[in-house]
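Hi there,

I know you've been waiting on this one. I reran it after we fixed the sequence typo, so this is the corrected version. Both the input and the resulting structure follow.
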Amino acid sequence: MAVYEELKVFSGNANPQLAATICEYLGMPLGNIEVFKFSNDNTFVRIMENVRQRDVFLVQGLTAPTNDHVMELLIMIDAAKRASAGRVTAVIPYYGYGRTDKKDQPRVPITARLVADLLTVAGADRVLTVDLHAGQIQGFFNIPVDELSALPILAEYFTEKKLEDIVVVAVDIGISKRARDFAERLSAPLAIIEKRRSGNDGTSETLNIIGDVKGKTAILMDDEVDTGGSLLNAADALKEQGVKEVYACCTHPVFSKNAVERISSSPSLKELVVTDTIAVDVTKRDGKITVISVAGLLGEAIHRIHNGLSVGAMFVD
């Protein structure tokens, strides 16, 4: 195994606060880097310190504006490689374009694979990410990919709340395996919302609830919340089936359009718990939206990768 020199962590503009908190966990300063746009809309990157033979970690989620942040990350990788970095790891808390992971309609792209190719060609040696939308995305890369899970910290949060008579509810069949693992951590039964998407605009129609939920406290689970439509439709359906209270959790708070306002005004949803893989403005945390940090999770993984330790051991109970 190659031995790399000093560990260095740098951040793009997607979520600098998360990167700073990761460095606090590691007990080191955040690296000095310039990432900005010229007046002609071209992105410029300059690493302001020596990274020759260093083990470089670049923290950049592929969040809105997604295309800008993709380009920032690609150029940051190129800058690090041209500065003779020993190894470059792209730390991508949220992998944008992850939903486009297969051809589910005629004449459409597989953009998740395209982004993987771009990162590899740019010079990334490995990728560190959290809760991919689909597990097969790991196979789109020809470099090592470490996928972390936010399930343990989400489960710990709800365990500490000491809710009674709970049932974990998968927002759709696609997330059911992850929801089952979540339910096992909470020693709770699992139910599933069966739904059908009605187009490419993110809207969906709730069809059926599979499982016993009446009189219970439900915890809805999804990997991300975008417009909030699926989540709130599910919460309303659960209330109609006699659920006492509806909580929800997800890893990635995309919160596009007026999602925050819709969530805050929902009479069915009591609390939504998310992580900071995507930055959530303090003004949006109005008591119904709770944010817990994955900085310790990412920081520990970075420490283990740098020192040649097992990342998988982090999730062994």
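Quick highlight: Helices lie at 16-26, 66-82, 111-122, 151-161, 176-185, 229-240, 259-264, 295-306.

Best,
R. S.
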